[in-house]
Design brief:
By secondary structure, this protein is α/β, with parallel strands linked by helices. The chain contains 13 helices and 14 strands. The longest helix has 20 residues, at 124-143. The radius of gyration is 20 Å and the shape is globular. The termini are close together.
């Protein structure tokens, strides 16, 4: 069976969708012929390369402010080659490669769609465009033989906004490489001289990183912020940090390998993710696997994580004083190993469940 995983971006870029596609693909490639079809707006990466058993094909795209990822080259490739695949598995409603896949789909390949759907656009302009785009977005859902949601929250959004038959929707959460984290010795990796607040993900306004920066002046100087990721909002974060006089307490990282990223998770005292729109919250899962407590927004799928033991919620509009107090309190907590692992699914199990979906629609 030949499978194409179609996504807007792929590692070395960091993000939830990038991790999701990489983790399931390298496992599925042990049984099937798997290719990644993705975009590279700047043309800085190899057009074709093999990562392990997975072939990666990158196409140039138009991606203003790291969004949309319109790629005529990808569309033309799919239009001419889609019949060579048994399954097209498209990812992300909020970028155009999934629409390219739906429009290019012929009679032969099965289309599986994982929308990672947030229900809204991620900025004022994108939210305005989000409404008319639904007319096109419905085309992806209508052509999909199966839809895979990563949370019950996302499933409810899809049922609310699109006329999708419930029998075609499957809920399969994101996973964690549990073996990578089993050797992490909880709290023994923490730096005794500083308290590390960690953020992992793309830098966009809706992610709420600016609230963490605003909280830094309200926290003692031992608190520092490690930001792992890049994006269009980075310059705003830098400008705000300089204005508040806390730039020296913020460190930016990007394109980290897995070993280094796990080290970042394990050394952090608290992970903070105040995103308004999340279909799952993969950074929260990985932080918990590393034994690091979390502060999240009581919004979207993130609120499903809140248990007031290892994950603590913040309401919008965010009160920065209260956020600072919560970060200070949570940074000293310990996540119990049994609690953190019991609620997480391993990527091996995720891949098995996705394989079952493939087989259920292809036979």
């Amino acid at each position: 069976m030949k499978i194409a995983q179609i996504c807007p971006r792929f590692p070395p870029h960091i993000g939830g969708i990038e991790t999701h596609v990489y983790e399931i693909s390298k496992r599925l490639a042990k049984e099937f012929d798997v290719e990644i079809l993705t975009t590279d707006p700047r043309g800085a990466l190899a057009d074709v390369e093999c990562i392990g058993d997975v072939a990666v094909r990158r196409f140039r795209s138009f991606a203003p402010s790291n969004s949309y990822y319109l790629s005529l080259d990808l569309y033309k490739y799919l239009k001419g080659k889609s019949d060579e695949y048994d399954i097209l598995h498209a990812h992300s409603y909020h970028a155009l490669p999934a629409l390219h896949a739906a429009m290019a789909k012929g009679e032969n390949p099965i289309l599986v769609f994982t929308p990672h759907y947030h229900g809204k656009g991620h900025s004022f302009i994108r939210n305005l465009l989000h409404k008319p785009y639904k007319l096109l977005g419905r085309e992806i859902f209508s052509k999909a033989n199966a839809v895979i949601c990563v949370s019950e929250y996302e499933k409810d959004l899809v049922l609310r906004d699109f006329n999708v038959d419930k029998t075609r929707i499957h809920v399969i959460p994101n996973g964690v490489n549990l073996d990578e984290f089993r050797c992490v010795r909880v709290n023994e990796c923490k730096d005794v001289d500083e308290k590390i607040i960690l953020y992992v993900g793309r830098l966009e306004k809706y992610k709420g990183v600016d609230y963490v920066v605003r909280a830094l002046p309200r926290l003692s100087s031992e608190f520092v912020l490690n930001v792992v990721g890049d994006g269009s909002y980075k310059q705003n974060i830098v400008k705000l940090a300089r204005k508040l006089g806390v730039m020296h307490r913020i460190r930016f990282y990007q394109k980290l390998n897995r070993e280094k990223l796990i080290e970042m998770y394990s050394k952090a005292n608290v992970l903070v993710l105040l995103s308004k729109y999340e279909a799952y919250g993969l950074a929260v899962a990985e932080a918990l696997a590393a034994g690091t407590p979390c502060v999240v927004a009581n919004e979207a799928a993130l609120k499903e994580w809140v248990d007031d033991r290892s994950v603590f919620g913040v309401d919008y509009p965010v009160d920065v004083d209260e956020l600072a107090k919560l970060i200070k309190n949570v940074a000293g907590k310990r996540v119990v190993k049994n609690d953190r692992l019991d609620k997480l699914m391993d990527w091996n199990d995720v891949a098995i469940r996705i394989k079952r979906v493939y087989l259920s629609v292809i036979w």
